[in-house]
């Protein structure tokens, strides 16, 4: 896979941002070079305790203890972490209650896969797609030693986002074919929505609005893998009958999206924009009231995400290898480092909704993942449950 050079990518981003500002679309961040997670060696982190608190921190997966509030942490020597810490402090997000652990503290749930995407908790199982094989799996993480992933479907053209329609059917975004595929109980697939007539770039992650059954899906906007010049991408809304229309445009690599619990607010990750952008969902499914929901620390590239019951969003930064819990306005309340890995996606689930599943890989180059099969999904326990537990 050809990778854009950092200097050229920054020049392209400046042009995109200039165009957005000129047209009144607000400000976005310059993307870093999408080459790999931070390669600076990390020392093992130890969890400190704030002098004003004695509560325990986030715990590794499988433990029963869930803290009421997180404790403080001690910093690592990573230069990238230092930049992130400085940015958090500048924005008022640095505080003694921030939890900071590494992926080494987590329990592995699935290993030996290539590029885990589309993490979702549904009907007591963790669902995910292995993007580089097009396969969709589910697993019961509490199934004991004999638990194994169950193949649910195989989708041509790289599988990504997952969701469920009101009639119970699973839908999967097929990136290369620019379609959304519906999966029957027996694994048979059919095209639910075909965007290829209007969209030339790869489609990306999706979310189904649980209140209306409508699906929102983004597209890259340009050919990333061919080294094409960076261009903003669109967001589409798909009705329950498979018809679709443009919902928003001018997003700097729209990626994962979440409907905030108890609201009509859709929050979209702009990967190369380094921000989360919110929209109001109108009764007809159209999006209005575009605004910045959270500017993320310098260098953070939001990929997958999941929302919890308090309306905070866990964001996966694919290039810096970290998972951040962010509240509206940009304050970072919790952080999990995945040194030397791509932080791809996450989901909240488990019996009580307080298990955070973390999807990582060693690369997003298909040639590399075909050789290494180093992708995995790990689990940690967190204080705040997911917004939908089922």
Please specify the SSE layout and strand pairing.
Elements lengths: L5 H17 L36 E2 L18 H12 L8 E4 L4 E7 L2 E7 L2 E6 L4 E5 L10 E5 L4 E6 L5 E5 L4 E5 L5 E6 L8 E6 L6 E5 L13 E6 L5 E8 L2 E6 L5 E6 L4 E7 L5 E9 L6 E6 L5 E5 L4 E5 L5 E6 L4 E8 L5 E7 L4 H7 L2 E7 L9
Parallel strand pairs: 2-23
Antiparallel strand pairs: 1-26, 3-26, 4-5, 5-6, 6-7, 8-9, 9-10, 10-11, 12-13, 13-14, 14-15, 16-17, 17-18, 18-19, 20-21, 21-22, 22-23, 24-25, 25-26
Describe this structure in words.
The protein is mainly β and 390 residues long. It has one domain (6-37, 47-381): TolB, C-terminal domain (Neuraminidase, 6 Propeller), CATH 2.120.10. 9% of the residues lie in helices and 40% in strands. It has three helices and 26 strands. The strands form six sheets. Strands 1, 3, 24, 25 and 26 form a five-stranded antiparallel sheet that branches. The chain is globular, with a radius of gyration of 19 Å.
Features:
single chain, 390 residues, mainly beta, Neuraminidase, five-stranded antiparallel sheet, five-stranded mixed sheet, globular, disordered N terminus
Give me a quick take on this structure.
With 390 residues, the chain is mainly β.
Shape: globular
**Percent of residues in beta strands:** 35-45%
Radius of gyration: 19 Å
**Which sheet architecture does the biggest sheet show?**
5 strands, antiparallel
């Amino acid at each position: 896979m050809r990778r854009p050079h950092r200097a050229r990518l920054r020049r392209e981003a400046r042009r995109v941002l200039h165009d957005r500002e000129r047209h009144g679309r607000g400000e976005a961040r310059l993307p870093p070079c999408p080459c790999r997670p931070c390669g600076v060696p990390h020392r093992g982190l130890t969890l400190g305790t704030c002098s004003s608190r004695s509560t325990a921190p986030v715990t590794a997966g499988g433990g029963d203890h869930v803290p009421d509030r997180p404790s403080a942490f001690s910093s690592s020597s990573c230069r990238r972490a230092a930049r992130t810490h400085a940015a958090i402090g500048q924005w008022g997000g640095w505080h003694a209650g921030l939890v900071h652990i590494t992926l080494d503290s987590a329990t592995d749930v699935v290993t030996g896969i290539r590029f885990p995407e589309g993490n979702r908790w549904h009907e007591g199982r963790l669902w995910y797609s292995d993007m580089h094989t097009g396969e969709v799996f589910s697993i019961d993480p509490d199934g004991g030693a004999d638990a194994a992933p169950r193949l649910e479907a195989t989708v041509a053209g790289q599988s990504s986002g997952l969701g469920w329609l009101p009639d119970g059917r699973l839908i999967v975004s097929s990136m290369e074919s620019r379609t959304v595929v519906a999966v029957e109980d027996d694994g048979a697939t059919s095209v639910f929505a075909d965007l290829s007539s209007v969209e030339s770039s790869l489609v990306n992650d999706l979310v189904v609005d649980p209140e209306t059954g409508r699906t929102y899906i983004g597209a890259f906007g340009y050919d990333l893998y061919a080294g094409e010049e960076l261009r903003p991408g669109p967001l589409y809304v798909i009705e329950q009958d498979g018809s679709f229309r443009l919902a928003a445009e001018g997003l700097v690599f729209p990626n994962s999206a979440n409907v905030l619990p108890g609201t009509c607010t859709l929050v979209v990750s702009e990967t190369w924009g380094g921000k989360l952008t919110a929209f109001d969902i109108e009764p007809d499914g159209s999006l209005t009231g575009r605004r910045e929901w959270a500017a993320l620390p310098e260098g953070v590239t939001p990929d997958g995400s999941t929302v919890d019951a308090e309306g905070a969003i866990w964001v996966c930064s694919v290039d810096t290898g970290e998972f951040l819990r962010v509240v509206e306005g940009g304050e970072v309340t919790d952080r999990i480092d995945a040194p030397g890995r791509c932080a791809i996606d996450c989901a909240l689930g488990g019996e009580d909704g307080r298990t955070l599943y973390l999807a990582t890989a060693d690369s997003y180059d298909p040639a590399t993942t075909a050789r290494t099969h180093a992708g995995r999904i790990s689990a940690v326990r967190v204080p705040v449950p997911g917004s939908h537990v089922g």
